[in-house]
Structure formats: structure tokens, C-alpha cells
Structures
1.
Amino acid sequence: MLSCLQNDEPLEELLESLSRGFEMGLKARCLIAQKLEDGWDRPLAQWRQELDLPA
């Protein structure tokens, strides 16, 4: 964000992406509580479904 301000670039796209990511985080299950290392063999689609993450 600082780079956009310093270079006089528009912030709209950056802020929309931050907002989308924040909303995704609010809807998803708590990722820090997951033992992701125990599921390296699981497909990403399965993780996304289990953790309520969009594709």
C-alpha cells in the first residue's frame, strides 16, 4: 500500500483484493489450528472444501 502511495498508483484494486481476502478469512475455518503437514497427500480441493475456502 505504501508503494502505491509513493508511486502515485491507484489504490482501488489493492483495497478490493484486501477486502476480498479479509472476507474469505472470516468465512474460513481457523487455519492455524489445522495440522497441514499431516495431509500433504490430500488434494487441494479436499482441503478447500474442509476449511470452507473458495476454489
2.
Amino acid sequence: MLFSSVILFAVAALGGLLLGVLGLRQRDLPMWLSLIHGVVAAAGLITLILGVVQGSAGLLPIIALILFVIAALGGFVLFSYHLRRKPHPKGLIVTHALATVIAFVLLLIGIL
């Protein structure tokens, strides 16, 4: 499960990188990309939760899970800006990205 979550988060990161660059440049974000990013990241989060609940995870994947949940909350807020067609706060974009990158690195270290 943990390896599956790494793959899903990596795919979500590709879309997130493009969304982040566009958001920081205050460009229009494609709704389809936002939806795919969110769905794939949610699938990664679900598989990570399942992996942690199964009891096979160490401390680092648990910390990664907590950070991914925090990042997901930030993602929901960013998506609300998208739905309202308002400019995305740059600080929130950067915080969301930093939380996910740190969580991803901790998860990778934790499963290797």
C-alpha cells in the first residue's frame, strides 16, 4: 500500500507542479487539471491511510500522513479559490507545495 501511495503522490505532484507555476503567475488554472490532481492525491492519501492502519508503517510514514492531511486541507482551500474564480494566495500555494514535498520525502525515506 505504501509503495502505491508513493506512485499516486508522484503522479499528483506532476499536475500540482503545473498548477503551482500557473497559480504563482496568476494565470487561469484548467479545471480538469485541478480535478485530476485532487482525485489522484486523494487516492494517494487513502492508500497511505490504509498502509498506516494496517500497522506495517513506521514513524516516518505516519508523520508523512499527518503532513499530507494538512496539505490536503490547504488544497481544499485552494480549490475553493478556483471555484470562486479568485486569485490563489501565493503564500498558501507555497505552503501547500512545501508540506507535500516534505511529506513525500519522509514517506520515501520511510519505505526505503
3.
Amino acid sequence: MPMRLDTRTTAVVTATIREWVRAVHPGGTGVGAGPAIPADEVERVFARVLDELLELAGSEPFPVQAARAVGRRLAESPFERTRMLAPASRALLGLAPGNPGSLIATRWSFVASQAIDSYAEALQQRALAQQERSLSEAVSVRVQEIAALQTRLRHDATHDALTDLANRSLLQERVRVMSTDPARGVGLLLIDLDDFKQINDGYGHSVGDEVLVTIAQRLRSSCPPETVIARYGGDEFVVALPARRNTLGELAMRVLSALCEPVPTASGPVPASASVGTAFCPPGRDFDFSDLLRSADRAMYSAKTAGKRQFAVSDLDAEEVDPGAPRSRYAAVAG
């Protein structure tokens, strides 16, 4: 049951509540960043706070924790976004309830102080929590930015800037992993564009770059998913894949067909073709990337010498497939 207050105290409490409401609710618009709080709700909450604190001031034993619990409520709904520590302090500490010398009059300043201290502590904890959330969000964003930057840097370090194909270092690493497959060997295609210098000289280097980018796209479309495709030099590309020997010729023909179509550019269609050399290292054999690449390179030059627009199998592979065959074998694309 609410405490019965004398007439003077009731008048003081009523005046205090109204002053408090005017301080935190000027012009009826509310205070803080959130939606306006109706004045009657503000008045009702403040009246309940004062009633409870007055009740505690006249009770035994000394109600420290209960007074602090009442103070914490001022940091909760509907005031969680309202700045009112100063007006609350003035209102509570400025109130002088009860007759001089009475229990309420004696204890009021202590009860009010506990409530205000608890309210201030709750505001501080809320502010710290908000700072932690903001800091955590900022750190999370920064961590994501750093992770994205690291991913981009790793990508840039292992890919060609123009075509976005693998560069030499990534190619060698991926091929090294392929060579550990006990069931399949490593197949290599060395691809050299025919007469690319004439394209650069006749159309300009920007058109030459367009041709290289399109060639890279066509290689991606022509090769199986496990393939690693690298730009190995200016107009040289290497295709490596875990394979069986009899699949390389089929892939080489598919690549030649894709690369022998004219390339659309800003200067119009540009004729293109390529010569390809293949090499194969069977599973279980000691693997040396440099040796395999040299074998493919010799086969590619054999294809160039034989008239371009075709592929040649490396000498070693040709002998293993057919010991009586010529030292190089060729397959050309019609066109």
C-alpha cells in the first residue's frame, strides 16, 4: 500500500514531478534521439519512482539495494534514449519530504543518492556497451577489409594482370600437386599465337591486348575444370591438367579450333591462330616441370615449322605411342 504523505510533502512531490517533466519533456516534444514520449507517461513513471523511493525511505532496514534498483529503472524503457541525469539529480536531491527529524526526512538524501548513483552507473554501462558494439562493428568491418585485401593481394601475386590467368609461380605449384596423383599423369600444352608481332605492329598494342584477353577467355571455355591455364610469356600460354596420354590430342584439337577464329576488337575482326606442342609425364615417373615444359616447347616449334595452326606431340610421347613413327607427329586444324 502506498505511503500516506502529509499535505506539505504531497505538494512538494507534485511540484517536483511537474518540474521534472518540464525538464525532460520541454514543449511536449520529448528528449533524446528516439520517438517523443508522451508527457502523461513521463509524469506517471516519475510519480511511481518517487512513490517507491519515499516508501523505501520510511522502511527498515536501510534499503540500499532496493533504492539502487529503482534508480536503474530510469535507464530503461521509456527513457533509454532520453538524457535526464541532471534533471533527475536535481529533482531527487532537491526534494525535502517529511517533517524535520522524521525517518523519511533523515533518510531521503541517502535513498535519493543511491538511486541517482545507480542510474548514473546504468547509463555508464549502457554507454560502454554501445562503445563496445561500435568498436566491435568497426573492427569487424576492418577485419573484413583486411581479409579482402589479403585475398586480392594473394590473387594479384599469382595471376597475370591482363588476362587474369595463372602466372608462372601458380602454374608450377598447381602442376607439382598434379604430379602426386598416382592414377593420372600430367599433361602439358604449350600454346604460341601465330604471327602475334604482326598484330601488335599492324593494329597497335591495345588491340593486341584485346586479342590476348579473348584468347584467355576461349582457353577457359575449351578446357576441363581441373585445368590450370597460365599466361607464360607475351603471347605464350601453358595449359596443364591431370590426364591420360590419349586425352591430350583431343584437347589440343579443341584448343586449336577455339583459337583459330577471328577475334572481334575495337578495330574490327583480327585474324588469329596458334601452334601447340604437347608433352606428357605418366604417373609414377620422376617429375620435372622444366623438362616437361622443354619437351612441349620443342613440339610447339615443330608445329610452327610444319606450317602453324596445328599441334605436335613431343618426341618422347610419339615414340612411346608408336616406336616406329617419325620423331614428331602433327595434327592441323583446317581453315
